[in-house]
Amino acid sequence: MDIKERIRRSPPPPPTPQAAAPAPGHPRGRKGRVAVLPLSVAALVACVVLLLLLSGGSAARRGGQFLDADPATARRPSGDGRGGLHQPRPRDGGHGTMESSKLQSDKLIGGLLAPGFDEQSCLSRYQSALYRKESPHLLSTYLLERLREHEVLQKKCGPHTESYKKAIEQLKSGQDIEVGDCTYLVWISYSGLGNRILTITSAFVYAILTSRVLLVDGDKGTADLFCEPFPETSWLLPSDFPVNLFKNLNIGSPESYGKMLKTANIHSDGSFKGPTPAFIYLHLAHDYDDYDKHFFCEHSQQHLQRIPWLILRSDNYFVPSLFLIPAYQEELMRLFPQKDAVFHHLGRYLFHPTNAVWGLITRYYDSYLARADEKLGIQIRVFDTETGPFQHVLDQVLSCTLKENLLPEVNAQQPIVSARKVRSKVVLITSLNSGYYERIRTMYWEHPTSNGEIISFHQPSHEEHQDSDKKMHNMKAWAEIYLLSLSDVMVTSAWSTFGYVAQGLSGLKTWLMFKPENHTAPNPPCRQVMSMEPCFHAPPFYDCKARRGTDTGKLVPHVRHCEDMSWGLKLVDTDEW
Question: Cβ–Cβ contacts within 10 Å for residue 199, how many?
């Protein structure tokens, strides 16, 4: 509504005695016209006051926007119990009402998240909508129904409930276990952060398919990184879990499902020699053998239904092979009609940065990334024992970004290039080494871009070496994954689970840089991925029905080999070859 319309709709001032209607027979002569003058003056005064109020309100909003621009000063009042964590900057040019409306309408991510959490205990859960664009990947109503059902199961059977205590007592007895209403899948913390995020997601998919309660090992700072995903309960495995030395279970352990098959402790009908075990260990890590891989056969799933406790160790995103188990195919299709959005949806459902990590994310984003017209993320992961930076890796990064027009060329002939409309682009680089960032930044500092575009480069950290056992190292890694996922365009590195997670959270089909061989940049340097799904690095190549080896990347059109690993498997959203 413009100012004229506001004035037109404003109520008229009350009539004055001078403006009263003339007495009958009184001519409307000179006195009548003079009597109207005070009314005109009053209306004029009202207009002036209204204009001042409107301009003052705009100035106040502009002033609020200016004050909030500096993240160092944009903090909540002291005493809020949040360590000075600042609120997100307005995303609507400073109009707080629009920001509040967006937060209220988007904070549940289209129904993906459940309401009712204590918002202050995990600010990122509902504030992420202010930083992340709305996902174009639609959710199925069936997935939402199953998530709500699973939340009820987690609450009913989770730690410290009567059902959990009963299940623990049965587990301690170790003999003739009966499967009750509550069965469990325990995830063992293993490998680096990216692998842990992918394996928790895989475990959660399996938990939904088998109606098991998911409990995660709190080792390596799980609680320092992620908020609780389920309302009114905890997914953290209690410290008094009775399976002694369960973290030492491995491929050769007698409790391993593969070992049981190998030693014929399980009959073909699924019965066990001797009493039914209290639990079974599932070894699905990269070094698992052919017997362990029988987990992905339908007859094995029938065996495992009889076991109330399953303990899982994995460093793989094994969801693609779940899509190949006949008993689960229909259910998975209903849950994920867009088959390449499994991790995208579940990653945003499960993994919410804790307040400490959210502070790292929001402070960096508001300081360096928020104001750019476009955000480009570049993730550089080098699998080499020697110390970098390497020239061939730098050549590959530049070749990919320039060839695909993700970065503009530099003009080495002119000191300044002017453009009619100057656009700003911010480039976020993540790498263990700072050398690539410094060289690319220097190149664009010493020379103007050919199109006049203004580009800034930023790298939050350079830890030099991966150290997955250190709390702050993991917190920074999780913050950088999340920051990458806020990019408009992204370049990632082959084989990197760090990149897979950022790609999946973003919902983007990123540009994937191929793994260099013999210290030579690949040609082509990169390609756009078929889907945003992570790659299963160590899938089984076994036809369970025919009981012989087969190419599992050629069984169904929506499970194919990965771009960066010819033997890996990934989900794609297609029903045709």
Answer: 26
CA 313: distance to chain centroid? 23
Contact 112, 345 (CB under 8 A): yes
Q: Model-level pTM greater than 0.90?
A: no
- Distance separating alpha carbons of residues 208 and 149, to the nearest angstrom: 9
Q: Is the peptide bond before 136 cis (omega within 30 degrees of 0)?
A: no
Q: Which residues does 523 contact at the CB level (< 8 Å), separation at least 6?
A: none
Please tell me the number of Cα atoms within 13 Å of 287 on its side-chain side.
5
What distance in Å separates the CA atoms of residue 470 and residue 472, rounded to the nearest whole number? 6
Complete DSSP assignment for 393-433: HHHHHHHHHHHTTSSPPB-SS-S----SS--EEEEEEE-S-
Please state, in angstroms and rounded to a whole number, the distance separating the CA atoms of residues 230 and 151. 6
Q: Specify the 3-state DSSP secondary structure of 490.
A: strand
Residues constituting the chain: 577
Quickly count: other Cβ atoms within 10 Å of residue 37's Cβ: 11
Going from the first residue of the chain to its last (577 residues), give the mean pLDDT of each consecutive group of 10, the final group possibly shorter: 39 40 37 38 45 41 32 32 39 46 74 94 96 94 98 97 93 73 94 96 98 94 96 96 86 94 83 86 96 95 93 97 97 98 98 98 97 97 87 97 97 81 93 96 95 94 76 95 98 98 98 96 97 98 92 97 97 90
